[in-house]
Amino acid sequence: MARTILWGSLVLAPVALAARFLFHADDTVLFLLAAAALVPLAWLIGEATEHAAEHTGAGVGGFLNASFGNAPELIIALFAVGNGLPDVVRGSLAGSVVSNILLVLGVAMIFGPRKGELDRRSLLLQLGLVALGVLVFLVPAIAGFHGDPNRHSLAVLSAPVAIVLLIVYVVLTSRNLRQHRLAEVDTMMPTGTGWTLPVSLAALAAATVVTALISELLVHTLESFAHTANLSEFFIATVIVAIVGNAAEHGGAVVIARRGKIKLATEIAISSSAQVALFVTPAIVLLSFLFPNPLALSFRPIELAAMGGAALFVAIVIRDGISKRWEGWMLVGVYAAVATAFLVAGDR
Questions:
Q1: What's the N-to-C CA distance of the chain in angstroms?
Q2: What domains lie within the chain, and their CATH numbers?
Q3: What is the pTM of this model?
C-alpha cells in the first residue's frame, strides 16, 4: 500500500512545476508543493540505489547514491553563484557535510536494526577525507578572516586548493571502490526479482534530474519563506538549503536502513559528506570561474569547526564497527545543537 502511494505521489513533481510556470502560484504554495514532491523522489532514488547495489555491492551502491543525490546540490550552488550569493553557497556546502554526517547517519541508525554491522574501514576512510578537506579549506579560509571574504584574490587562491582536493578524492575513492568490489564480488547474489543494472541507473538519472528541478524551485521560494519566518540567511543556507539539496540522500538512506541494510545506508550518508567536501565543493569553485564573481573557499570559523568536529565525533562513535539505535539518537541530538549554533551565529 505504501509503495503504491509513493509511486502515485511522483505526480507531485510535474504538478509543482506546472504550478510555477503555468499558473504562477503563490510562493508559499510552491514551497509546500516542492517539499512534498521531494519525498517520493527521495524514495525513488533510494529504491533504484538498492536495486543497483544488488549488482555492485554496498560500497559502490553507496557511492552511486551519493553521486546522484549530490547532483542537485551542485546545480543549486551554481545557481546561487550566478546570482551572486557566495555566502549561501558556502553555508549550504558546510551544512550539507554536517547534516549528512550527523542527521542522515543518525536517522539511518535509528531506523536500522537494533545492532548492525558497519564497514568500519570504509566509513573511517570517508570521515578522514572530510577531515582532510577541512584542513585544506583553512588555506583560503584563514586569509578570508580579515578583509573582504569574497575578494578575487581569495578565489584565485581557492583554485589550486580545489584541484588538490579533486585529485585526492579521485585517487582514494577509486582505490576504495576497487577494494569494495574485491571484497563483495563473492557475496553478491542476484535475486532475479530486482531491476537490472541499466534500469536502476536510468531511474537514478531521471529521478536526479527531476529532483534538481524541484530543489531549485524550493530554493527559489525559500527567500519569501525566510522573510516570513524571520530567519538569518546563514541559518537558511546551512540548515534549510542543505537539507533540501540533500533530500534525495536523506530519504534514500532512511528507506534503505529501514529495510535492514544499514551497511549501505551508512555508506550513503558518510560517502555523501566526503563527496561534498572533496568533489562537489572543488567542482563548484572551478566552475564558478565561468561567472563574473568566482567562489572563494573562505569558510567561517563556525563552518570549519562544525565540519571538522562532526567528522571527529562520528569517527569516535563508529570506531567499534557496530550501529546502535541510541547512538543514532545521540547524533541527531548533536545535529540539533549544531543547527542551534548556526541560528545563533547569524549572518557574517
A1: 48
A2: 2-186+211-345 (1.20.1420.30)
A3: 0.82
